[in-house]
Amino acid sequence: MNQRHCKIGTIRSKDNIIYNTSNLEKRYTTFIENAYNLMQSDAGLSDFFY
Q1: What are the Cα distances from residue 36, in Å, to 1, 22, 42?
Q2: Residue 5: per-residue pLDDT
Q3: Please, where are the H alpha helices in the chain?
Q4: Domain range annotation of the chain
Q5: Cα 5 to Cα 32: distance, rounded to the nearest angstrom
Q6: What mean pLDDT do residues 10-38 have?
Q7: The whole model's pTM is what?
Q8: What is the DSSP letter of 2?
Q9: Cα Rg of the chain (Å, integer)
Q10: Which of 3, 33, 30 shows the shortest CA–CA distance to 15?
Q11: Of all helices (H) and strands (E), which one includes residue 5?
C-alpha cells in the first residue's frame, strides 16, 4: 500500500486502526473477566476470614 504524505507526516492506513481496535476489545474483555474472577475469589476469602 502506498503511503500518503501530508504537512505533518505520513498517514497510516485504516487497517492498522481496525486491528488495534480489535486488539483493545480483546484486552478489555480479558480484563473484565479477570476482574470478575478476582471479585469472586475475594468474596470467597472474605467469607472464610469473617
Answers
A1: 42, 21, 10
A2: 58
A3: 14-49
A4: 13-49
A5: 39
A6: 81
A7: 0.52
A8: P
A9: 21
A10: 3
A11: strand 4-5
Partnered with residue 5 across adjacent β-strands are 10
Handedness of CA 10, 16, 17, 20 (dihedral sign): negative
Count of all residues that appear for the chain in the document: 50
Output the CA–CA distances (angstroms, integers) from residue 27 to 7, 17, 22, 32, 46, in the order listed. 34, 15, 9, 9, 28
Angstrom distance (rounded) from CA 21 to CA 40: 29
Lookup result for grid cell 504524505: 5
CA dihedral sign, ordered 16, 19, 25, 31: negative
The string of pLDDT tens digits covering residues 28-42 is 999 999 988 888 877
